[in-house]
Specification:
single chain, alpha/beta, Rossmann fold, Isoleucyl-tRNA Synthetase, domain 2, 2 domains, EC 6.1.1.5, isoleucine-tRNA ligase activity, ligase, two-stranded parallel ribbon
Length: 331
């Protein structure tokens, strides 16, 4: 593919590598043959000096999990890495054979492999360059986490169980201060709905929308307390609770600014805020959103935007509650 007399100069195709954890499938054929190889051959015919260096991504949790799938008792990190590397090498040999049989042009004798020391060295040098340039900083961010592997996951690594049903709950939070427009109601609670009830001890705010109309209501067959919910969601709430809902007053969401409340699961009498948010909708729930910044990206962004200190995470690496969240939940 190299022709030093190529009149149009060099053309380099940087390969986004396949993952070395399983056999090839039709997606690989589309990627390698119908996209990359066709581009390289076209450029070669046009007079370019074509360089295509294939490679493999050899690191990651999927490789490790597959490597120990037949021996789940292995827990030693060094042994797991050895088995993962051997699995990757076997897969790479299999892939090479297939790619060559597909007649894909490339330097198959000298591919780049992400576990090679020279590749890792270049990564560290690149990171050092970023560090010296002041582009590296330490902060917080919610991440996907696997308790079994005790590691963070990329979104692309998530596997959902289609049969899983999230257990949702409705929870009332006692409001401690209300705007003047609601002063006539001495006792009122905000009603929230969440599909992650285990995050309730981590609640730090309730999100609302200034563009939604909210109501003070009583749910007849549920309780005689004053509850705050979004007006547009009353029909769905009536269906959910199998009860008629009586509307006592309607106010615009812009009037909810400054409201505070208490979390019924909190260990202390901490006063928490209502926060304005653009992601609150009336498609489901109550129009008031439970906000646990340690366990949701939108929640985290809302808290940091309002300069509210982030609390300690309520679960450990094993996915168990820690005693600081509530002694009754420890482990």
């Amino acid at each position: 593919m190299r022709d030093t007399s190529a009149p149009k100069g060099p053309f380099v195709l940087h390969d986004g590598p396949p993952y070395a954890n399983g056999s090839l499938h039709f997606g690989h054929a589309i990627n390698k043959v119908f996209l990359k190889d066709m581009i390289c051959r076209r450029k070669l015919l046009e007079g370019f000096e074509v360089s295509y260096l294939p490679g493999w991504d050899c690191h990651g949790l999927p490789i490790e999990l597959k490597a120990v799938s037949k021996d789940a008792q292995i827990t030693d990190a060094i042994e797991i890495r050895k088995k993962a590397k051997q699995l990757a090498l076997n897969v790479i040999d299999e892939h090479k054979t297939c790619f060559r049989n597909w007649q894909i042009l490339g330097d198959w004798d000298h591919p780049y492999l992400t576990f090679h020391s020279n590749y890792i060295t270049n990564q560290l040098k690149a990171f050092h360059t970023l560090l010296e340039s002041g582009l590296v900083f330490r902060s917080h961010s919610p991440v996907y986490w696997t308790p079994s592997g005790r590691t963070a996951l990329a979104e692309a690594e998530l596997q959902y169980n289609d049969k899983h049903v999230s257990q949702s709950v409705f929870v009332k939070f006692n409001i401690t201060s209300v705007p003047d427009i609601l002063h006539k109601y001495s006792d009122i609670s905000a009603l929230i709905w969440t599909t992650t009830p285990w995050t309730l001890p981590a609640n730090q705010a309730i999100a609302y929308s200034p563009n939604i109309d909210y109501c003070v209501v009583i749910i007849n067959q549920l309780c005689d307390e004053n509850l705050l919910v979004a007006k547009d969601l009353i029909p769905s709430l009536e269906e959910e609770f199998k009860s008629k809902i009586v509307i006592k007053e309607v106010i615009n969401g812009s009037n909810l600014k400054g409201i505070t409340y208490k979390n019924p699961i909190s260990l202390n009498d901490e006063i928490l805020p209502f926060l304005e948010s653009q992601y609150v909708t009336t498609t489901k729930g109550t129009g008031l959103v439970h906000t646990a910044p340690n366990h949701g990206v939108d929640d985290y962004k809302l808290i940091t935007k309002n300069n509210i200190p982030l609390k300690e995470c309520i679960v450990d690496e094993k996915g168990c509650f820690v005693s600081t969240s509530n002694p009754l939940l420890d482990n």
